[in-house]
Write a structure and sequence with these properties.
With 650 residues, the protein is mainly β. It is built from 7 helices and 37 strands. The strands form 7 sheets. Strands 13, 14, 15, 16, 17, 18 and 19 form a 7-stranded antiparallel beta sheet that branches. A 7-stranded antiparallel beta sheet has the order 30-31-32-36-35-34-33, with helices on both faces. The chain has a 6-stranded antiparallel β-barrel with strand order 1-2-3-6-5-4. It is globular, with a radius of gyration of 33 Å. The N terminus is likely disordered.
Amino acid sequence: MLALAIMMAGCGFRSTPSPAPTIAPLATTAPTPTPLPTFTPTLTPTPHPLTPSEIFERVSPSIGFVDASSGSGSGFLIQNRYLVTNAHVVWPADSARIVFPDGSEFPDTPVVKWDLIADLAVLGPLDVNAPSVEPSYDEEYAVGSNVYLIGYPGEVEEFPQPSISRGIISRLREWPREKLTYYQTDAAIAGGLSGGVLVSDEGKVIGIAGYQFDTYKFGLAVSMADVMPRLNDMIAGRVVDGLDRKPLAREFRGEHEALIEIRSPLEAKTFAFWPQEQMRVKFELEGDEDLLFFIRDARGGFPNVAETLSDIATRKANFLANDAPYFTVVFNRFGQEAEGTLRSTVPLLAVEDSDDALQPLSPDSALRGASDFPGDQDVFPIDLREGQTIYILVESIMIDPMIRIEQSSFPKGETLAKDQNSGGGLLGLDAELSFRAPGDDRYLIVVHDAGLENVGGYHLIVEDFAEPMPTPIAPTPTPTPIPTKFGPMALYIRTFAPRITLFYPADWWTNRQDCMFFQADCFGDSKNKLVIMVEEKKTPKNFSLEKYAGQVAQSIKGVEIIDETRFMNPQGFDFVIKHLRSDDKALHFWMAATLHQRTPIVLLFMMSDVETLAEKSDEASPDPESNAFSGGLEAFEAMVRYIIDNFDVQ
């Protein structure tokens, strides 16, 4: 405006001057200037950083301890009546116990809504005296800004007090599909801090803690500015994740007996049950002998239910349970049609999986699904022509997604293609692959958590292949059998690092379905099996292979150690081998443990029907044209040594 005024003042009109009459000057008096009022600007006070003590005093009264049925976590108050936490803290229960720092307790607070895509849950309403937190509605916090985490890490007390830790904002990460920003911070996010708050040095809540990366010593907290609209919608009763899953109540009416019918290769029947504390629970499965079941708790753990192995599927179970939800999954280990009856001493609630599509997907599909329980495998059929290529992507922050492509016809065969982490994404865990159909057929897109233990939502995107998508994957051709003194062998090459190679009998099937209770690959026939397990975490520098092998052997219940050896194979891998036998002498195990670049690898060989086969062991010898197990116990052990001798990592 000043420039405009100057410009206008310098652009007045000119006229020719006229003579003016002479006027005698008058005496003048200098005027007394009138002082103008001094302008005092109104200043907006700049927020000043608070001390850690001031921040804790301001925020901590609003932070609640969440005591859920299968774990604990943290939460915070909004709208003066509702508590926000992570969905994975309370899932799958319909309520949780909430305790605040002033000692107020709410033993049965209902879950209002879940958001299984963004990992959020709202509980309430609460009649509480604590104030709501002050959320920040902007994301203008620079990298390097001081931040504080407040919550309840690793709590064991019944009425705990929150804790505070300090760090900085290390960087920002984005999840474009959900339009969510995450703060990366070196403030320690330990177990129990999930649902806690990330606070600025002004005392405002800028994020919700949810993810920790122990190996790299940092955590992620989702921006409050991004999630507040979702939280307000959840409190209003609206569905924000597109899934609208219902919680599991502690008490429900159910039958103690269930009919099992398997009608598709990847079909499984799942039942929930919720026993009382220290209740003895018994299960028995009758029917086709290839039907098995396993039991997992809500956190993906295996209770010790079987008489011989603590984490292998069984047909009978007898164990002491906790006051927490459990899931029983019944399946056919060979992926064939089967029928049977499951009986239990506790009521069973059939879990219907709404993600298993009944109609085939099209190559331009985008949908949301969820791994609803540990071990859940969602199956989506798709019809493809020979040579047609599709691109598949699965994004998630709650599970480590795995994609598998299977054929839809019986019997279930080898996986045609699979991927775990190629898609990158916010956490580096998204799965993606391109698949070229080998023929006109109906195929199955299978989505599940890679460890078959985590629960949560995901995005599934299926598109026609176009550059620069991943190179199309054609099914691996059937390997040419390699003749050996133990019969024809096939070469196994592990898909993920470390890329293990070894031989196995060519007439064995390779069936992940039968291996769904392991983070492993499986091979075998109707009586015997080889399981390959790779630990996710690297070992410390002072790691003892003997101690590790002993721990693995101890995890196999109901066995005795027959023999132990240690040797180095021709490729330079140092193995500890333990020969174990079940108490009923019906099973023999050879557990072989080794290391590759501080990554533990275990080969577990299992041989059944030993008594029958051992009768022939003195007179029989390996037949190059037949399965090695026809030679009995000695031939089996010799074959184990042969496989270990040829073990290598590419």
